[in-house]
Amino acid sequence: MPNNMDILPADFRIGVVGGGSWGTTLADLLAAKGFAVDLWAFEPEVVQQIAELRENRLFLPGVTLSPNLAASTDLARVISGKSLVVVVVPSHVIRGATAAMAGVLGPETMVVSASKGIENGTLLTMTGVLKETLKLSDQRVGVLSGPSFAVEVARKLPTVVTVASHNPVLAQRVQHVFAASYFRVYTSEDTVGVELGGSVKNVIAIAAGIIDGLGLGLNTRAALITRGMTEIRRLGLRLGANPRTFTGLAGYGDLILTCTGDISRNHTVGQKIGQGRRLSDILTQTRSVAEGVRTAKSVYDLSRRLGVEMPISHGTYRVLYEDLPPREALYQLMTRDLKQELDDD
Questions:
Q1: Residue 244 is part of which domain span?
Q2: I need a surface site. Which of 37, 88, 149, 180 has the fewest CB within 10 A?
Q3: Which residues does the annotation mark as catalytic?
């Protein structure tokens, strides 16, 4: 692997907005490569822990962080004068966080979203929110996605991801910024496909967790994952995505991981629902965000607006928001009208 630092300006500085497990992991990855990285965290205790202990015990316990990483609750300080800003906050707070960045962000700064979700109400993807709040063109925005549990990346276990942008120069530069011996990065120009793959898979992961919570076996889960990808692809095609994206890292790669991994937050939420727990109780007992819960509503609204058939996603929405019993949702899926497997398009 070439020395990626050699192809970047000597004063290349990075800000990471979001001090959760994924934001901290990405910030540490970059800092360990030698970049000067500032990390914004909402929680003062996270900033204090990183400064005093070199650890984010709240969201990423047990991982010693690079001395090149500095944390702050001052958002303007974190993003000012940066070459690259990586946004890694939950979908429901990204609008407020990025609105606070407006007027401070440099005119040449590249902005990459590592958040996954579709905003409720507006039904915008995360880069859509970034472009709206920060008045950015497609040429300054990218998205990073793929099979990447934060704790495994933090432990330097190998994985492969994709960075997508309408600007190939931006994508290639971000590719080199992030690439490491345990973190291989590919590029893509299909921003919408990469974002949809990374967002809707969380809804399917909740459904897969429900299947496992009900004890319905591996056959059922495999079938659900496969048909879930059919739904993601349908929505993506309607929105102009490249269908090949969904066979790649941001498609099947991330979907399989999130639907089968024991540490998947979305799968865990679904599993507990399948075991009879109430969603409200599940969510009050964790500080981590299961993006699929909110995204389920956005996907339901968006697919209905566009007339896209997504029965698994709709069933998951009704379990989460209309208290449809999981077994009834499954019965409705299994007794739908019979049809051929492959879509026409």
A1: 199-334
A2: 180
A3: 201
